[in-house]
Amino acid sequence: MPKTSHRTNAFQESVIRGMTRLANECGAINLSQGFPDFDPPELVLQAAERAAREGPHQYAVTWGGAEFSRGVGSQAITFHGTSARS
Questions:
Q1: pTM to 2 decimals?
Q2: Are 47 and 63 contacting, i.e. CB atoms less than 8 angstroms apart?
Q3: Which SS3 state, helix, strand or coil, does residue 40 take?
């Protein structure tokens, strides 16, 4: 592999790459990349179509939307007995 310029030494690992590495190390389901090895259920396809038509049409901030974060935190408490900060 060719050597890269010393200017690239300052580049850091992307958040998605870091989450992928961490998920692999922990044997976790990786939600940071969209590469499932199965087709989604019809209900999910219908929901995706509805969301695409209705919007909003903007990526969430890197740390996730507030409503989503609260939902994940609630699930962590309900199913794992752990607290999560949002």
A1: 0.34
A2: no
A3: coil
Per DSSP, helices labelled H in 1-41 are 15-26
CA distance 1 to 8: 15
Are the C-beta atoms of residues 31 and 16 closer than 8 Å to each other? no
- Please report how many Cα atoms fall inside a 13 Å half-sphere around the Cα of residue 24, on the Cβ side: 7
Give the model confidence (pLDDT) of 40-85 as tens digits: 899 999 999 998 999 777 777 777 788 888 888 888 888 888 776 6
One DSSP character per residue, 44-72 reads HHHHHHHHHHH---SPPPTT--HHHHHHH
CA R_g for the chain:
18
Using an 8 Å Cβ cutoff, are 73 and 83 in contact? yes
- On the 0-12 / 13-18 / 19+ scale of CB atoms within 10 A, 76 is middle
